[in-house]
Amino acid sequence: MLAAARQAVLVATVPLPYQPLRQALDERTNVEARMCFYLSGLFTAAEEIQHHLDAGVPVVVESYFARCLTTHRALGARLGVTLPSWLPTPATYHLVCDDDERQRRLAERNKPVSRWDSLIETVTDRATDAYASFPMHRVDTTGRSPDEVLRVIMDTETQGAHPHADSEPVGAHPHVLPAVPRHAPGTCRP
């Protein structure tokens, strides 16, 4: 919805070629290996993002470096990561809601719950604390429809940003829920 509203391209931060390995890796228990995999996907996506931006095309992503780093740190990863200065730096929105509504939304999701999904639910306070180190717009979605949330995001000032280029520091994380796999155009979704 945000990509359509901003007339932007939606870039998957776990690129399509990564998807089969993503499923296999998510069955494993090594949090550092998982973190490195997701970082690799993000760096690959960052090249695509920069290509679009260089062509003057705005970009929306569902997840970015802040989500990867905070989630894996909350899950116990101890790798030190310094992000390079060349990364595209989006305006970021951290969508939150009260716990009762969050639990209801999780229960209504139509996707299998992985081991990692279950683990992150045991450390939500650590993940929330880790997000505080990344600049982002916090948007309370409690009791709001997706259309209402979109309006809040669209009305949020991005402090001097060009209308087609968001310029806040790295830290995208639209929600704490796992990323939705993307499919190649023309393929059917199960």
Automatic annotation (TrEMBL):
Kindly give the Gene3D superfamilies that the UniProt entry links to this protein.
P-loop containing nucleotide triphosphate hydrolases
The UniProt annotation puts the region (Disordered) at: 158-190
InterPro entries assigned: P-loop_NTPase
Q: Which SUPFAM superfamilies match?
A: P-loop containing nucleoside triphosphate hydrolases
Kindly provide the name given to this protein in its UniProt entry: ATP-binding protein
